[in-house]
Design a protein that fits this description.
The chain is an alpha/beta fold and 377 residues long. Helices cover 30% and strands 19% of the residues. The protein has eleven helices and 14 strands. Strand 7, helix 7 and strand 8 form a beta-alpha-beta unit.
C-alpha cells in the first residue's frame, strides 16, 4: 500500500472529481506517485485521413470524419514520442496494483501496445469492442471497420489488480464474459451536441463501454484518471457508479461540456449490479462435505442437463459406464467432450417426487452454515 504524506494527500484531493483544462502530460506531473487506481485513455488515433471528403452514396451528403488538429501529428515518430510521454506519466501515477485501459483503432493501437510493453506494463487482455451499428465504408474499397481494440494492462506483472469476475458474469447472464463486447456506437440522445445541434466530439464513446470497463476493474470509491477526457464519458460513468474521477482535457469547449454533463449525473444503486464478494473469497466447500452432511449418499445418482447419469462412489467421485470414474468436474467435462467444466453448475440430484435439485444449491446451504459459524467465532 502507498503511504502518502499529508501534503501528497492534499495534492490528490485537489484533483478529485475535477475536469481540468490543459495538457495531460503537464497536469499529470502534479499528481503524486501511486495515487490512482485505474486509468482509461482514449488518446488521439492519428488517423491521417487527409482533406478528401467522404460522401454517402445514397444522398451524397458529407460523412463527418476526424480531422481535428488534436489528432494530427507530423510523423509516426512524433506520435510515438507523444504516446511515450503520457504513458510514462500514467505508469508513475498508477498504484502498483492498479490498471490501465487504452482504446484505439488499427491506425494506432499496435504502436501504443508496443510502447506499453517497452515501458514495462503487463498486458492482461485485448478486448474487442464490436460496434453493432458501425459507420459503413462508403467507397466500398475495404471491409467496414466495425470494431476498436482496448488494451487492459497493469504497471507490473506481479500486480494484484482488481477484476470483478462475478460482476461481469452476472452482467453476462450468468456466463463467463468474453473479450468481445457487442455495444452500439454513441448515437441519438447520448450524443453531446454543440450550439448548432451537431455532435460536439467526433470520437465520443458510449456510456455502456465505460460502465463495463469501470465495473470490471475498479471498486467503489476508487480513483479513475482520464488524460483525454473529451466530452466527459469516463467522468459521467465514474460518478454514476460511485467512483471518483480525475480528468484532463486541452480543448476548453470540451471541458465546459463535460463539466455540465457530469453535473447532471445521479449515482445509481449498485446493489443489484455488483457482486460484493468474489467466489474465491467465499468459504470453500468440497463435494465430500455434501456426503458427510447427509445431503447426498454413496450410490446415489446425479443427473446431467442432457439426461446422462453418474453414481456417487465411496471416495466422493462419480462413476459412469462409458466415462469411467472421475471428480464431478472432470466427469462433466468428459461427457461434454470439453477440456474442463465446473461440475457444480452441471449436476443435479433427483428428489423422491421427481424434481431436480442442483448440487450447487446443496453446497450453498452448507456454505451459509459454515459462514455463520465463522462469523460467530
Amino acid at each position: 500500500m502507498i503511504k502518502w504524506s499529508s501534503g501528497e494527500r492534499e495534492k490528490v484531493e485537489k484533483y478529485l472529481n475535477q475536469i481540468l483544462n490543459g495538457d495531460c502530460v503537464e497536469l499529470m506531473q502534479g499528481v503524486p506517485d501511486g495515487s490512482v487506481d485505474a486509468i482509461f485513455a482514449d488518446s488521439p488515433y492519428n488517423l491521417q485521413l487527409g482533406e478528401k471528403t467522404l460522401y454517402r452514396p445514397e444522398d451524397q451528403t458529407a460523412a463527418r470524419a476526424v480531422r481535428d488538429t488534436w489528432d494530427a501529428f507530423e510523423s509516426p515518430e512524433k506520435y510515438d514520442e507523444f504516446t511515450r510521454a503520457w504513458l510514462t506519466q500514467c505508469k508513475r501515477v498508477l498504484k502498483p496494483d492498479g490498471s490501465i485501459w487504452v482504446i484505439g483503432s488499427y491506425h494506432n493501437i499496435f504502436r501504443v501496445g508496443a510502447i506499453l510493453q517497452d515501458l514495462g506494463f503487463w498486458i492482461l487482455n485485448d478486448v474487442v469492442w464490436v460496434k453493432t451499428n458501425p459507420m459503413p465504408n462508403f467507397r466500398g474499397t475495404r471491409f467496414t471497420n466495425a470494431h476498436e481494440t482496448l488494451i487492459w494492462a497493469t504497471p507490473r506483472k506481479t500486480g494484484k489488480y482488481t477484476f470483478n469476475y462475478e460482476t461481469m458474469k452476472k452482467l453476462n447472464g450468468g456466463k463467463q464474459m468474453r473479450s468481445n463486447w457487442d455495444i452500439d456506437i454513441c448515437l441519438g440522445h447520448e450524443r453531446i451536441k454543440d450550439e448548432t445541434g451537431k455532435s460536439l466530439h467526433n470520437t465520443q464513446k458510449p456510456m455502456e463501454l465505460l460502465r463495463r470497463v469501470i465495473l470490471s476493474s475498479t471498486k467503489a470509491g476508487d480513483i479513475i484518471l482520464d488524460p483525454f477526457m473529451g466530452s466527459g464519458t469516463t467522468a459521467a460513468a465514474a460518478k454514476e457508479l460511485g467512483r471518483n474521477f480525475i480528468g484532463f482535457e486541452r480543448d476548453k469547449k470540451y471541458v465546459a461540456a463535460a463539466r455540465k454533463r457530469v453535473e447532471q449525473i445521479v449515482p445509481i444503486d449498485l446493489s443489484d449490479i455488483e457482486v460484493s464478494a468474489p467466489k474465491r473469497e467465499e468459504v470453500r466447500i468440497a463435494f465430500r462435505e455434501l456426503i458427510d452432511a447427509g445431503l447426498l449418499c454413496v450410490g446415489q445418482t446425479l443427473v446431467a442437463p442432457n439426461g446422462e447419469r453418474a453414481i456417487i462412489t465411496k471416495d466422493a467421485q462419480l462413476a459412469h459406464p462409458m466415462y469411467g470414474k472421475a471428480s464431478i468436474h472432470i466427469m462433466a467435462a468428459r461427457i461434454q467432450h470439453s477440456v474442463s467444466f465446473n461440475g457444480w453448475d452441471y449436476w443435479s440430484v433427483q428428489k423422491r417426487d421427481g424434481t431436480l435439485v442442483p448440487i450447487d444449491d446443496l453446497r450453498k446451504y452448507i456454505r451459509n452454515i459454515k459462514t455463520e459459524l465463522k462469523q460467530v467465532a
